[in-house]
């Protein structure tokens, strides 16, 4: 009787890569947990599924965790009052993989022989499975399925005498990406992996020292930006305010994640010593140079396409107009009526400004294309609204490779650029023309002359497939798959 | 020990007038409740505090109500399955005044002698108290404190024979603003008050007829826009699809609310036969003509200031840039740490794009100023971020008068324009210059030559103080206050 | 593969008639709501599904309602603090018929022209539908499906001048059973129907006057028992402590419900000036005389069979022993495993004391048999535990007729005694012998010589089918059914 | 203005020792989790605060835990459907000490190198702190504060090759009381400590093997009682139904807890090969012989005093009557009105049957006296109801010593018998006479000639102070307290 929409509806109209986490910590200030809640709130775009804060009052650590947003869990006086003390650290996460509910929500905590140990981690340890297997063999009992717990067990069983040595001993065994904030009864430590893949910055709030994934969190809590934590740097802060910097991994060339500039970080953050907004606007400028277009309107796909669209408009002289209106009351999936409401899913989020676009030639600007499903629907919405021509420009190179450093990526076979060439992609999204910024255009937009192919200045593996670290767990999984010995096993325990 | 922020923090940074409601109805279609949920979702900006849907399956009416957003209450299959049938109507509301919890959430329903009667109402009845006193005197028992229930009791006690006559009989006694959707076992009726103060449009979804507060709801459910319900028009729709239009109040000149163009409606809606986005952009153009400014950047106060800022930029040639980044993870009030986090409340929502504005002369564009508190903080944020000059342009005339037609307005003494002249307002918000669009500039922007002062084409009472209807309850309250006979009495019953 | 139990499992093992409500009120004391909560808690056995309390603080009425037990809703200081004042009344109810959620939970409240009016009602109005139809015809709008609301509308539309006259005017139109507690801004009124079918007692707590369905509630709150409210009596109590008794219905002979002695009231209550425990023990004594039995153990079906079993044991000389152990952790239905767990449902509540009954001849004593399903299972459990003979004695006559006075009774066709004679009943429950106390035995046990058949001293309609009032709604329903004009209509509005 | 009750109100009127746990397990049957839920429900009296079930489906273990009763957490089909498989074990617990919420709720689970390991434990390990300190020193990370987790870590780090050897290796290091049910991918193991302090029985349900703390759980699930698990016995059950019994601790004389007969077990259970009901009735008989009394009524303190009261009545010939009526709607603490409601707290649970006891000489029978507060109030209630004399007989010896084997006991200084002699106790509870059964009377009642003082047949440490095991943690705490070195430390981590 009715024609069901033949496409799998991506209800949210969200076809983005997602940063998995944000971290925040403060030592030496009053109301440390309240500041941490505010800081995490400013990092909410880095993870919306769960949040946790641990605080230390000089004697005890207390941890509070919850599913959902920071405001859902830490906006009441009661929730903050449970977390007294002058040191606190917190974490927002994008998803709780493994169905383990609150067990995987960070900060993770353990009572070690040397005292309490709490850790918040942004990133992904690419040899976690291998390390875990060894630890369990020796009698370690894991309480979560989080890769972060591997670090705690490595610290717990390290034979070095001091906490700093134990931590460095542990991190030397670890491979992958991490920005860590650690609390012990003696103070706070913050650390980035040797390549500095994930971001971490440092600030000052009165006498207190603050760490955060992005500088915007410093702004929101009223702290001053000091500097970024350098790739491979481990910074110790004591309760008396002493700050000590260590370089336990020597000084390899850094490879920060270039996608922070493209999409992950907020435009008002400073990443790798450059304004993210500036980078995005310049990608639009590069794009206008590399892929000009005979259009009457530059229309951003809101909100992430706006800065590049401003750049494209300024460079091309074509007026910038809101041809798509985005609703911010989105989140859950709705029941889809079967009749009439074609594309309602995506329209709930993105609706055409019909009287503007009708009869016009438009160029759409989006930050990236992942699976392509949303792009296709947005093109269709523009056509349904009467656009005469719909051109599509993308403010990043084609995303053809998965990320193993703490970003949720679909399998390569689901990435549009992983399975199609440019012509096929244009055909898939049904645009009149399609262009991506080049990899060199992207490097220019972030302020460099070009990509140094011998030794790239950023991690750009999602575009190039060049991974800057070993990927031990992945390699072993491929070996096993090749031998057809075992399917990837399910977790052996689940908390219902 | 610490200096508490001396300003009363408006945590949300929200200093807006708020439309109190949105309504949606459908008759003659499959899955009427699911379509209604989607339609209300598209009207969510008109009311976020409560939502209700009533459905009629040919025999029974079922109503489901909840606090919070549409998605919180109507996104599951179970919630929709409880509401079967081919006719449904729903309502979102901004606040549940009177603390009466779910009792005041619409649609309201009553079993009348003639059968079931459900009503969803956007607007405000300005003689509700007077009518209620008379009804109670005759033995009527009210279950809510909503003015809408007065209509139901007037219908229930009308001596006219048919439901249509009863409804018209009731509405003739009522004064004020209303856009109503009524359901009875015989069909649906939709109606706007004689002046058409509140909006209501009509559409077609397959064979079904759809009504909604704004055209964007038609877009999102996939319906076609037919026309607006005319001021003073009452439209009956039967289950067989017959549509009958009535004009029970004759044909007085219309006075739709001009603030729908300024702020209430979504930019992708069509109001009073004109694109709202177009109106807003043209206000910016008028503003650039009336109040030019020597600035380097046009910076919108997001999101509502964006269309006018685009107009201002296009007219003036000054580049449009995102100097303020808005977080969309806002909602609840956070615990305010006492130290350091000066302006954290407003920064949670609006943060400066520091590296952009530093050292620059900027002109901020906002849609309106109500109390002025947010404007003051935003100017301060820009200065803290290093802006060299901060000019402020407002895309509406000064808001100096309360609204009694279904909009939540502060008392006149709290309206910035109700207590200060332009120079004092500029001083209060500490801008380098301040200008508002003129009332004629506003009328030009919505496509008219100028305001017809003898018979204004819109209700603009919030700017001019010229109220197009009697305000009986208000007049009586003033009389009583003048006689010092009685304080405004508390409600005599509360549900805890 | 497995044999599903062929009987419909009555999971709770509860095969009882249920009193529908309990009421409690206090005027003139401190912390009126706290006392009311405690009093309702002592009446919890009269209704477990919902509870409400209204309090009056001299200006406002506040009502708080909830589903579940008193302790679930009124055990916190916050819940009580919302209900300030020196007058309060409350209600527990067995079920919320009509699926209307909290709308039907009492006390009901209305703002009348004369001021606030709150009412708590135990009983059932047997012409409620007829009265409601008339009221709706005149324009009344009902907010609940409760018969009690009819009283409020009759009061609201009465033409008498004083509240007392209005109330009496309303009650004269009403037929059936009621024990009412009414609150107005002038004080409290308590009233029993002319026949006094449902119970109501009066007590004194310091200077305060207290009313309750049973005397046990007076004990628990520490009040002194004054006397019962007489059948047909209306007692007014003012805030200054003045108590006025009225007899608005003349002085018809009383007919209190004899089942209060059999099962409804708690054994430590005084009903109709007699100890309920004493009555129950004497039923056991009469039963031992009328239906002796060659058994080795008297085994009560706990808890309600215990007093009669003590009487039976004392009269017969057969030892009283706990052959069945009852769990008090019962309530919800459990998932029934298909294998092995035969009779697990009833065993969850009643388990055999196997080592006691094995090889013994036992006589089971229960207070009543309604559907017979639990009795059958209990006999089986005793046999499974090895009892040599199982005799069954019932401490009430056969229950063959429905109740229309506020007791939840199955249809006559589901009452075991409504569809079988004694021999068939014995066969159904598979006992070695079965006997019920005679109706005259029951009257003797409650202290009378015998039943006065011309003018019975109690309402015993459930045993005899002799209803002491007209049953207008039932008669009309039968008429309609006979004419096959209309099915019993569903409610026209439901709140999901 | 009002006289506050001078006594600390024990709101619940509960002055009992509490068993801390009950366990249940099944292997080899369909719907293992549903049977486990039913079995735990029958053990609900052993722990009401939390419940958990783990199930194994041949591949994965799934655990579901919750606060509150079994019925609150496991009565829905959904909750059971999450726990598929033919092996399951569960646990009810009295309290979640340590405020750790669900972390301490059993079964506990760990992924060991040898595979999954789940354990449910009833009892208390009296050297847990000492063992935990050693384990943490070696790098173990504890996730709960439960003593049970010590067993898991000892198993995880055991150097023995097989799971059975590892478990025995672990248990040899452990001191105290335990009845354990363990699940691994290979099957189930059930085990009692060498002295068999805590109970555990074994049954058969079709082909499945069932373990439970009490035989009543076997009855309720429909299983056949096989035998008790012997003290010091470890029983392994494989999925093919093979049952192997081990005696890893040799054959020391058993010391089961005699308080299971006095109060903990349900009267319809069989403990140590004897009917609990029979034991309790015989305590009443012994008591009547040892401490006769010139009374007119034997009144049990319900419910636990009933069997002994029946014995006392049968032996003495004084009639058994319900002089106290117990409400089963108890649980939460209520707000105590300050006026009038003297003793309302205890009356909520225990109310006098005034018309029965007025003017009578009565003898009250209770199972035990712990703090004495409830006994005092009950005596007072009887006097307030007009009893002429109130004698008190206790069906256990004076409880003067704490329990360290899994029973929640107040400190010795709060035990009435720990701080007073008989005369003072009588004075405290204000009875006309007071007597306890003798220790030899108690041993006779459980079927023995007398207590063997050289080698007692039961653990009766709560009466005698003779503890059958070392109490290492307690001894060390005393040492530390003696040296005044350290206060008892707070836990270093809390989950808020």
TrEMBL record, chains A, B, C, D:
Domain Glutamine amidotransferase type-2: from-to ranges: 21-240
Enzyme class of the recorded protein, top EC level: transferase
GO biological process: 'de novo' IMP biosynthetic process; purine nucleobase biosynthetic process
Ligand binding (Mg(2+)): 304, 366-367
Residues annotated as binding [4Fe-4S] cluster: 257, 403, 459, 462
Alphabetized Gene3D superfamilies for the sequence: 3.40.50.2020, Glutamine Phosphoribosylpyrophosphate, subunit 1, domain 1
InterPro entries in UniProt: GATase_2_dom, Ntn_hydrolases_N, PRTase-like, PRTase_dom, PurF, PurF_N
Molecular-function annotations in GO: 4 iron, 4 sulfur cluster binding; amidophosphoribosyltransferase activity; magnesium ion binding
Positions of the catalytic residues: 21 (nucleophile)
Reported cofactor(s): [4Fe-4S] cluster; Mg(2+)
Enzyme Commission number(s) of this protein: 2.4.2.14
Domain of life according to the entry: Bacteria
Pathway annotation from the record: Purine metabolism; IMP biosynthesis via de novo pathway; N(1)-(5-phospho-D-ribosyl)glycinamide from 5-phospho-alpha-D-ribose 1-diphosphate: step 1/2
Record carries keyword NADP: no
Keywords: 4Fe-4S, Glutamine amidotransferase, Glycosyltransferase, Iron, Iron-sulfur, Magnesium, Metal-binding, Purine biosynthesis, Transferase
CC cofactor note: Binds 1 [4Fe-4S] cluster per subunit.
Pfam family name, one: GATase_7
Reaction catalysed by this enzyme: 5-phospho-beta-D-ribosylamine + L-glutamate + diphosphate = 5-phospho-alpha-D-ribose 1-diphosphate + L-glutamine + H2O
Family: In the C-terminal section; belongs to the purine/pyrimidine phosphoribosyltransferase family.
Entry function: Catalyzes the formation of phosphoribosylamine from phosphoribosylpyrophosphate (PRPP) and glutamine.
Protein name: Amidophosphoribosyltransferase
